[in-house]
Amino acid sequence: MSAEPSLMDLARDERADLAEFLATLTPDEWRAESLCAGWTVKDVVAHVISYEELGLTGLFKRFAKGRVVRANEVGVAEYSAMSTDELLAFLNRHLRPQGLTARFGGMIGLVDGTIHHQDIRRALSRPRVVPVQRLQRILPLVPGNPRLGAGRRIRGLRLRANDIEWEHGDGPEVTGTAEALLLAMTGREQAARELTGPGATTLLGRL
User: What angle do CA 197, 201, 206 make, to 5 degrees?
Assistant: First the structure.
């Protein structure tokens, strides 16, 4: 029996899928708005790679420059100056997460990579089926992650996926696909509108 892939392995696979998809985009699609407010597709890709080559000193400098809350915007501003070909080449050289995104065994790279891949695909109406194995590993990591803000959004609700075995919490039920639940927990209104159940309106109102 083969061993279960590590979070790092799954993060690498997710980035490889993203890179393959990005290679198919037109210039207009790179310039299109993503699900991340104020960010184009190109900006999202810049964000995904923007922590790869930062050591601790560089990380502290970015947080200082961005006053912590705006650190992501600082990284996007730095990397979005690259051409789309340069961004894609950089991503292909960093399919295995490094730097900050390699922390916690690759958890950051896997979770952020999957969410932002969907931010791009949904905005472009280019859907995919996220591999079940990745969703099964990601979903339990999200509710308790303070950086993602899911805890306050889903407090007092019971989330249940209708396409894989996963549920979380107690209270009025919110039901939907695992992918839609993942994106709703992390603040994506488009995905939250696809959810059903007595708790769905409450969750939507918290975004």
Answer: 130
- Domain count of the chain? 2
Q: Are 162 and 91 in contact (CB under 8 A)?
A: no
Looking at 89, 122, 155, which one is the last position of a domain?
122
For residues 184 and 164, membership in a common domain is answered with: yes
Question: Which domain range does residue 185 map to?
Answer: 133-203
d(CA 82, CA 86): 6
How far is the C-alpha of 30 from the C-alpha of 17, rounded, in Å? 17
Copy the structure tokens of residue 195: 């959810």
CA angle (151, 101, 60) in 5-degree steps: 90
- Global model pTM greater than 0.85: yes
Q: With a cut of 90, say whether residue 200 has pLDDT above it.
A: yes
The answer on 181 and 94 residing in a single domain is: no
Alpha-carbon distance 52 to 126, whole Å?
27
